[in-house]
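Inverse folding, one chain.
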C-alpha cells in the first residue's frame, strides 16, 4: 500500500503532513505519514506506506533533471498495475501522479491526459520512459510522440 501527494515547500508544515495526505488518499493507520524534501523542485513528497516505493519515486523525480528537453514527460510502471506520470516544464514540477493502468493503451491515455492539462501536445514532446518495464509502450507511443527515450 502506498499513497502520496506533493506539497509546495513554501506551504509545507511538518505537523500538517497527515492533513495534506488525507485530502487526496484514504490514510491507513498501519502506516506512518512521512515526507521527503525535493529541493530541486521546491516541493515535498508526503507519503505513507512502502519506503522502497517512496525512494523509487524520489529517484524517478530526480531523473527529470537528466532530461535535456524543456518539456519533460517521464513515465514509470513499477509492475504493480500502476503507472507513474511526471511532468516538469523547465525547472517547475507540474504533476506527479499514479494511475491504475493494466495495459499500455491505458497508460498512454493517462500520459496524454496529464499533458493536455498543461497545454502540451504529444507530437511536440519526447516521452521518457524510466527503466525498462514500459518498453512495450514505446511502439504505439512512437506514433503519438515526437520521440520515445529510455531513462535509467
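Residues assigned per position:
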Amino acid at each position: 500500500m502506498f499513497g502520496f501527494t506533493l506539497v509546495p515547500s513554501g506551504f509545507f508544515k511538518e505537523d500538517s503532513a497527515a492533513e495534506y495526505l488525507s485530502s487526496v488518499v484514504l490514510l491507513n493507520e498501519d502506516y506512518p505519514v512521512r515526507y521527503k524534501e525535493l529541493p530541486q523542485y521546491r516541493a515535498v513528497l508526503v507519503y505513507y506506506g512502502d519506503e522502497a516505493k517512496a525512494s523509487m519515486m524520489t529517484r524517478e523525480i530526480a531523473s527529470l533533471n537528466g532530461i535535456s528537453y524543456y518539456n519533460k514527460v517521464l513515465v514509470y510502471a513499477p509492475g504493480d498495475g500502476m503507472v507513474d506520470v511526471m511532468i516538469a516544464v523547465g525547472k517547475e514540477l507540474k504533476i506527479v501522479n499514479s494511475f491504475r493502468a493494466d495495459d499500455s493503451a491505458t497508460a498512454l491515455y493517462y500520459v496524454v491526459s496529464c499533458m493536455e492539462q498543461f497545454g502540451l501536445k504529444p507530437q511536440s514532446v519526447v516521452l521518457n520512459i524510466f527503466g525498462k518495464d514500459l518498453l512495450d509502450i514505446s511502439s504505439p507511443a512512437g506514433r503519438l510522440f515526437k520521440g520515445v527515450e529510455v531513462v535509467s
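The chain has two domains: 1-49, 59-152. Residues 142 and 148 are 6 Å apart (CA to CA).
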